[in-house]
């Protein structure tokens, strides 16, 4: 992708990969420019979402971003807190996060996944006004849907390795299968 093509992606919206009754609905912060340009979630080459999903046992092999719709066959889906495409999540305003939390709540109420997994505890804290939230299961629910905050798989989140992230994602997988 050229820098111009990436910048043009700021106007793009990526469709959710969702269905009713999923086991886990993964929720990213917002699409990055590479995702906006390709139309695929977690498309940036350095993003560790797809490797971690496989390492944690959610998928039998490492999927590529363009294979995102295969997640549905595993009872998994993907959405975002904020639909707006940006180069970095810090370009989003607290108001966008809060509005995203409201829209996400309505989506979860409609789709009723067993778990909502927000990949980015800071995004979860702002969107759901829960300043003390930590990685792991949350006390808040949306109807019957339980919420789990996961580490953000962005390469910028360097203090989490792929292996330590996979261990946390595997905790969620075990809970969702129980």
From TrEMBL:
Signal peptide: none annotated. Coiled coil: none annotated. SUPFAM superfamilies: Uracil-DNA glycosylase-like. Keywords: DNA damage, DNA repair, Hydrolase. Residues 15-176 form the Uracil-DNA glycosylase-like domain. NCBIfam families: PRK10201.1 (NF007570). PANTHER family: G/T AND G/U MISMATCH-SPECIFIC DNA GLYCOSYLASE (PTHR12159), G_T MISMATCH-SPECIFIC THYMINE DNA GLYCOSYLASE (PTHR12159:SF9). This is G/U mismatch-specific DNA glycosylase.
């Amino acid at each position: 992708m050229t820098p111009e093509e990436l910048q043009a992606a700021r106007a793009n919206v990526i469709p959710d990969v969702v269905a009713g009754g999923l086991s886990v609905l993964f929720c990213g912060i917002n699409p990055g420019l590479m995702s906006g340009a390709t139309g695929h979630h977690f498309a940036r080459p350095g993003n560790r979402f797809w490797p971690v999903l496989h390492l944690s046992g959610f998928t039998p092999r490492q999927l590529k971003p363009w294979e995102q719709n295969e997640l549905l066959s595993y009872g998994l889906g993907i959405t975002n807190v904020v639909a707006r495409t940006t180069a970095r999540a810090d370009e989003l305003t607290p108001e966008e996060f809060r509005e995203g939390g409201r829209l996400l709540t309505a989506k979860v109420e409609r789709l009723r996944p067993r778990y909502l997994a927000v990949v980015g505890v800071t995004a979860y804290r702002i969107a759901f006004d829960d300043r003390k939230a930590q990685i792991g299961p949350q006390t808040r629910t949306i109807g019957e849907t339980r919420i789990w905050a996961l580490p953000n798989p962005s390469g910028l989140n360097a203090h989490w390795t792929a292996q330590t992230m996979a261990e946390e994602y595997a905790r969620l997988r075990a809970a969702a299968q129980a």
